[in-house]
Amino acid sequence: MNKILIVPGAFQTIKNYGNYNGLDIWLKSYSEEFPQADFYIGHSIGVNFTLSHYDLIKNSKFIFVNPLIKKVNLISLSANWIKFLFHEGIKWEKVTPISNWLFDFKRIFELLKVDAFGVMLKIPRDHIVVIKGNNDNYFCDKQSVNILKNNGFTVIEVEAGHDWNQNIAKTTESCINEQNF
What is the CATH number of the domain that holds 38? Predict the structure, then answer.
C-alpha cells in the first residue's frame, strides 16, 4: 500500500479531505515535520507548501488540485478569495479555528513567495497530474490550464469549483489506484 499525504488548502484541516493522512499546516500546532510519502496531494496553496519541500521528496508522485500557477500578490489573492466566497462559499465547520488565522495569514504570505510553477517544471511529467475544478475561475483558471497543458502537464478537469468535493476525491483516488500518470 502506498503512503499518501495531503496538504490542504488555506484555512482547512485534514478532516475536510476524507480518509487521507496529511499535514495540518494551517494549525499553529503543526510541527513543521515533512514526512516521506509515495504520493503527495496538494490542494490550492497547499501545493506551494508541498513544492517548497521538493528537494526532499523528488522521487514521489504528485497530485495537485487547483494549484496557484500564476504568481499573485496578496491583494489579487484577497480579491479572488472574496469572489470565491461569494460564488462558491465555504462551510464554517471546514475552516480552521479563528485562533489560527493570524498564523494562517502569515503562512499564506510566505507561500506566495514560492514559485510553484517553476518548481513544477522540474518534476518529470509522469510523476505529476493536475486536477482542476472546471468551475474554478478564481485561483486555477483557464489561463492556468493553458499554461499547464502547453508545458506538457496532464490536466484532468472535473465537475467542481475550487474547493475539494466528491468529484475531486473520486478522481484523486482513481489517479492513485491507476498510477498511470
Answer: 3.40.50.1820
- The residue type of 115 is D
Q: Which 8-state DSSP code applies to residue 112? A: T
CA distance 178 to 176: 6
Distance of CA 77 to the CA centre of its chain: 15
Q: Comparing C-alpha atoms, which of 62, 66, 20, 27 is closest to residue 44?
A: 66
User: Which of 25, 114, 104, 125 lies closest to 70, judged by CA?
Assistant: 114
The answer to whether the CB of 46 falls within 8 A of the CB of 25 is yes
Alpha-carbon distances, residue 38 vs 48, 60, 61, 127, 155 (angstroms) = 18, 5, 6, 10, 20
- How many domains is the chain partitioned into structurally? 1
Which tens digit of pLDDT belongs to each residue from 13-23? Answer: 999 998 889 99
In the chain, alpha helices (H)? 46-51, 74-87, 101-111, 116-120, 142-150, 166-178
Q: What's the domain range around 165?
A: 4-178
User: What is the Cβ-side half-sphere exposure of residue 162, based on CA atoms within 13 angstroms?
Assistant: 27
Reported as a single tens digit per residue, the pLDDT across 163-172 is 999 999 999 9
